[in-house]
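REQUEST FORM: STRUCTURE PREDICTION
Request ID: SP-0412
Submitted by: Lab K.M.
Chain count: 1
Length (residues): 284
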Amino acid sequence: MFYNEELEASDRFYRNQPQLLQLCYALYNILVARSEMVCYLVMVLNHMVSASCLTLPLPVCVFLWAMLSVPRPSKRFWMTAIIYTEVTIVIKYFFQFGFFPFNQKMELERSKPFHPPNILGVEKKDGYVLYDLLQLLALFFHRSILKCHGLWDQNVSMETNPLDQYSRPASSPSSDNPAPASSPQVKTNSSLLGSPEGSVCSQPSRSDLLLVKLKEAFIRSKNYSVHRGMLLYGPLCEFFRALVQPEYSAVTDVYVAMFLADTIDFIIIVFGFWAFAVKWPTRS
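STATUS: Completed
RESULT:
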C-alpha cells in the first residue's frame, strides 16, 4: 500500500481545521468541479432578470450548443461567450448617456413594456451591468480552471491543416500526365497506320478536337483559379487563427489596445462630457 508521510500530515492538518472552514473548502471544491454548470446558471439567471434581446443569445447557445457538445464545450464556445459578454457591457454602457432621446423621459417610458429600449435591454437604470459582470467573472473563473488542468489550449500542431493540400501549386491534368492527353492522337495515328480503310472513318473531326481542347483549357483555368483563391484565403485563415489561438509569448504588445482605449476615452470626453457634469443653477 502506498504511504507518504507528507500526504498523511496534510490530511491531518485539514481534518483538524474548524468545521466551518472545512465547509468553505468543500463549497469551493464543488464550485471548481462544477464551474461549467455555474456559468450556465449565471447566463440563464442573467436572462431571467433582464429578459432582453441582448441576453437571449447566450442561453440559446447554452441549450443548443454547449450542452450538446461531447464531452465538453470547445474553446470556441467559451471565447464566444466571453467576447459577447464584453460587447454587451460596452453597448449597455454606451446607451447610458443622457443625450439619447429615450433617456430624456425615463419615468414615462419605463412603465411601457413594449418600449424598444426595454426590449433590447439598453434602457438607463441602476445596476444595468451587475449580472453581466457576474457572468463575465464566472466565465473567467471557468477559463482559469481549464487552463490549470490543461484543457483550454488545443494541440494545433497534431491537427492536420486542410489548407496543406492546396499549398502546392495546382497543375493541370495535361501537365501532370502528358501521356493520357496525347493518347487519343496516338491511338488515332496507330489506327491510321494499321488500317488503311479506317484512315477516314477513325480520324476525329475538328469539332471533337476543339471540344477536347476546350475541356483541357477549362480544367486548367479552374485549377489555376482554385490555386489563386487558396493563396488569398490561406493567409487570412492563418491570421485569424493566430488571433484566436496565439502562441505563448512572454512579451505582449498592448500598444494597439491602449491606443483604441484612448480613442474611445477621447470620444466620450469630447461628445459626452456634459452628461457627467453637474448642472449649476443659472442666474436670471
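NOTES: DSSP finds 13 helices and no strands in the chain.
Reviewed by: T.R.
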